């Protein structure tokens, strides 16, 4: 069975990557899909986010990287995925994730949502925390893949960051 891992990935963190590395072992193929939602005014363009994910997952077999807009269940259908993979960091994620899972189930009952618990040492990570730390010149190299750290350094013009 193939799985879809949808998200904003603005930017990809080591938490996301951990989920991808563990998820790909469970399925015949994993499609990492970046949601194109201009209303969210992302920090990184769609192309940049796709490149960041492609570079960080180049060592993994069975990964496809794609973008989508519209409904996640439609994207899952287009990809031939039977499972939507999502991560759970803390109780605070649960309510939101459960609501989305129920909504998606009501739209596509044949599609299952599977949650994976985040690795404990990555459970504090979120894209917004990473953006905030990088904006003020903090070191984010233990939070994101190397290429993303460079992109953040360039974006915020911070000499303390690599790149
Ligand atoms: P979205 O805007 O769809 O929530 P995100 O890029 O923030 O997109 O997250 C995509 C998925 O990855 C979500 O299921 C989220 O819970 C999960 N996720 C986010 N951060 C982490 C992390 N540090 N470890 C594991 N999973 C995470």
Rough outline: globular
Mean pLDDT: 94
Order of helices and strands: EHEHEHEHEHH
Count the helices. How many? 6
CATH architecture: 3-Layer(aba) Sandwich
Beta content: 15-25%
**In the residues, how many domains can be counted?**
1
The CATH superfamily is known as HUPs
Number of strands: 5
What is the percent of helical residues? 40-55%
Note poorly predicted spans: none
Q: Order of strands side by side in the largest beta sheet?
A: 3-2-1-4-5
Query: Might you state the CATH topology name?
Result: Rossmann fold
- CATH class wording: Alpha Beta
How big is the Rg? 16 Å
What is the structure about, briefly put?
This protein is an alpha/beta fold and 163 residues long. 41% of the residues lie in helices and 20% in strands.
Could you explain the architecture of this structure?
The protein has a single domain, classed as 3-Layer(aba) Sandwich (Rossmann fold), CATH 3.40.50.620. It is of the alpha/beta class. It contains six helices and five strands, in the order βαβαβαβαβαα. The protein starts with a strand and ends in a 7-residue tail after the last helix. A five-stranded parallel β-sheet has the order 3-2-1-4-5, with helices on both faces. The mean pLDDT is 94. The chain has helices spanning 14-24, 46-56, 72-79, 91-107, 127-135, 146-156, and strands at 2-7, 29-35, 63-68, 81-88, 112-117. Adenosine-5'-diphosphate binds next to helix 1 and strand 4.
């Amino acid at each position: 069975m193939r799985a879809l891992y949808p998200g904003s990935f603005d930017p990809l963190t080591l938490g996301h990557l951990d989920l991808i590395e563990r998820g790909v072992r469970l399925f015949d193929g994993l499609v990492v899909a970046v949601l194109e939602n201009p209303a969210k005014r992302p920090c990184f363009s769609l192309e940049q986010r796709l490149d960041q994910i492609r570079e960080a997952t180049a060592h993994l077999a069975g990964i496809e990287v794609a973008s989508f807009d519209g409904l996640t269940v439609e994207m899952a259908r287009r990809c031939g995925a039977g499972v939507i993979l999502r991560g759970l960091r803390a109780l605070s994620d649960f309510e939101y994730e459960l609501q989305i899972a129920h909504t998606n189930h009501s739209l596509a009952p044949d599609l299952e949502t599977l949650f994976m618990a985040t690795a404990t040492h990555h459970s504090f990570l979120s894209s917004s925390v990473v953006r905030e730390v990088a904006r003020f010149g903090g070191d984010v190299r233990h939070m994101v893949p190397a290429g993303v750290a460079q992109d953040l350094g360039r974006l915020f013009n911070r000499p303390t960051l690599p790149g």
